[in-house]
Automatic annotation (TrEMBL):
InterPro entries linked to this entry: Acyl_CoA_acyltransferase, GNAT_dom
Domain of life from the UniProt record: Bacteria
Protein name: N-acetyltransferase
N-acetyltransferase domain mapped to chain residues: 39-190
GO molecular function: acyltransferase activity, transferring groups other than amino-acyl groups
């Protein structure tokens, strides 16, 4: 197996006023919270959005692990729909001391480059800031953070920075090179 260097950048917002929202795209794009925890739907989103950029961490999760994760208080999935078709998603996860991580964010490849990503990220970050309003017992959000890496889409870092996220850490590590799994095995050429 070949190893490749992968750079991971961690970014944050430390106040709701840090958010610089993108304009909503033209057309019928809606963002809706997936309120019923559904391992099938969440795995579909994960594989469809991350399949060409080597998201593999959760592909081996059994159903029970997905269900347990999605049932945690404050874990939310917000889905962008373009004319009724899932176009991408953002997953939020509360952490200690009022931090909320944008754990996953992205678009299905066919929907990239259509100005949906900036809008979805803006909406997701805003929902991270008001997460405690929907989940009694969670502390008020004091920080929203995420990470991206050199394997992610070429416009990811610029989108995060345009939305007001500031870099706070950079790491370079060797990782095993894997082929893009696609939303199903063999969907993308190696």
């Amino acid at each position: 197996m070949t190893n490749i260097p992968v750079t991971t950048w961690s970014l944050e917002q430390t106040a709701p006023t840090d958010l610089l929202p993108a304009a909503a795209p033209d057309g019928d794009v809606r963002i809706v919270r997936s309120e019923v925890p559904s391992p099938e739907f969440s795995r579909f989103l994960y594989a469809s959005v991350g399949g060409d950029i080597r998201w593999i961490d959760r592909l081996g999760w059994p159903y029970a692990t997905w269900a347990e994760h999605l049932a945690r208080p404050g874990v939310e999935t917000w889905v962008a729909y373009d004319r009724g078709t899932p176009a991408g998603y953002v997953e939020l996860e509360p952490q200690d001391d009022g931090a909320v991580e944008i754990v996953y964010f992205g678009l299905v490849p066919a929907f990239r480059g259509r100005r949906i990503g900036g809008h979805l990220l803006s909406y997701g970050a805003a929902r991270a800031w008001d997460l405690a309003d929907r989940w009694p017992g969670l502390p008020e959000t004091k920080r929203v953070w995420l990470h991206t890496c050199s394997l992610d889409g070429e416009h990811a870092m610029a989108n995060y920075q345009r939305r007001g996220f500031q870099l706070f850490d950079t790491k370079v590590e060797e990782q095993r090179e894997v082929s893009a799994p696609g939303p199903w095995p063999g969907a993308y050429p190696a």
